[in-house]
Amino acid sequence: MGRVLIIGAGGVATVAAHKVAQNADVFTDIMIVSRTQSKCDAIVKAIGNPTIKTAQVDADDVDQLVALFNNFKPELVMNLALPYQDLTIMEACLKAGVNYLDTANYEPKDVAHFEYSWQWVFHDRFKQAGLTAILGCGFDPGVSGVYTAYAAKHYFDKVEYLDIVDCNAGNHHKAFATNFNPEINIREITQNGRYYQDGKWIQTKPLEIHKPLNYPNIGPKDSYLLYHEELESLVKHYPTIKRARFWMTFGQEYLTHLRVIQDIGMARIDPVIYNGQEIIPLQFLKAVLPNPQDLGANYEGETSIGCRIRGMKDGKERTYYVYNNCSHQAAYKETGMQAVSYTTGVPAMIGAEMFFKGLWNRPGVNNVEEFDPDPFMEQLNKQGLPWHEAFDIDLEL
Ligand code: NDP
């Protein structure tokens, strides 16, 4: 029934591959491809299912991708490589007639800027081809959009204030490490902040706005306002939203390291000449930082990610908080990866499952909140990311 091709062999792909393999009733034929084939083979070995195929591909190259798709003939491609590859993979999907899913929106390599416009322009072509593209199906973006859709469907007539809150209260016992691809992570955090209010985007300096927020089972953590891509699609799809913001926790030690990295020029993404060769400082930094995939073994504590929503129901104001807490150790025991990869890889698998079951199948380019949230929410509880709700509480925001 389900012939799926996973592109990428990093932390997120490793988790998604484990979960895809666990759901053999939905995913009948699986292939994992990436730049380095040995990493795909290692995932297959860890899963222990030798029927999973692997191959090498450069996902920046449309022709290579098309040849691969025509050979394996997947129904759906799960793009779990890097945001730089989104457009080439979407192009190849159109050429080979394959459906598409990803977890992060496109970013050009030379500018730290992300917005959906680059992918939304594919809408008519996917629609005409009768192909479904599901964008941003990790946790945030991903579950954050599904939570919002669920709240809007069941609890609100109008969603007016949306705060997505992302806390990692884990300790990996390293002086400095990022929880997913360091290059993508540092680009995201060091850019200006932005939030939506009364129809306008308001820009802030990087990490300028912060406040302590209480997270369930964790307590208060200083939380920083960042721009995050799902804000763009959520304010488009829920025009009643008056204000939408995104908050992420960082410890002081992390921020001090980040400041030094920036001050000494190691966060630069423009090429510099070193020993007669062009290098990008941030890419070099990635090579010497701990690999996010190796953090799991000693990672303690948990993540807590959710949506805090205020709006109107039957003429009265109400509040709603929906969240998941995920233990780094439990994630590691199941998949060999920490909770940040786990909370991204599991929703990617569920999105693919929704597609194969015909529940999220709509030709065109879609953000997750455009689909029915109910079957996805049900699967979150069954696949390792149970959620909890609180009503009419103080949201602190
Ligand atoms: P990793 O860096 O661990 O893995 C990326 C993988 O993509 C690597 O296996 C890499 O290959 C492969 N790759 C990179 N370039 C190419 C290429 N040109 N052709 C083929 N393969 C390529 O990243 P993560 O697993 O941490 O993250 C994966 C994705 O998930 C990213 O897009 C990230 O932004 C997104 N993400 C989304 C979140 C969400 O909640 N929505 C949260 C966290 C991450 P190689 O090993 O050879 O370098």
Notable characteristics:
binds NADPH dihydro-nicotinamide-adenine-dinucleotide phosphate, nine-stranded mixed sheet, seven-stranded parallel sheet, globular, alpha/beta, about 400 residues
Can you walk through the features of this model?
- The chain has 397 residues and is α/β, with parallel strands linked by helices.
- The protein is 36% helix and 27% strand.
- The protein has 14 helices and 18 strands.
- Strands 7, 8, 9, 10, 11, 12, 15, 16 and 18 form a 9-stranded mixed sheet that branches.
- Helix 7 (143-154) crosses helix 14 (373-382).
- The chain is globular and about 55 Å long.
- The mean pLDDT is 96.
- It binds NADPH dihydro-nicotinamide-adenine-dinucleotide phosphate (NDP).
- Residues 8-13, 34-36, 39, 57-60, 80-83, 85, 103-104, 138-142, 180-181, 184, 292-293, 344 line the site of NADPH dihydro-nicotinamide-adenine-dinucleotide phosphate.
Bin the helical content.
25-40%
Structural class: alpha/beta
Poorly predicted runs are none
Can you tell me the overall shape?
A: globular
Number of helical segments? 14
Number of strands: 18
Bound molecules: NADPH dihydro-nicotinamide-adenine-dinucleotide phosphate
| Rg result | 20 Å
Q: Biggest sheet, in brief?
A: 9 strands, mixed
Beta strand %? 25-35%
Mean pLDDT: 96
First-to-last CA distance: 45 Å
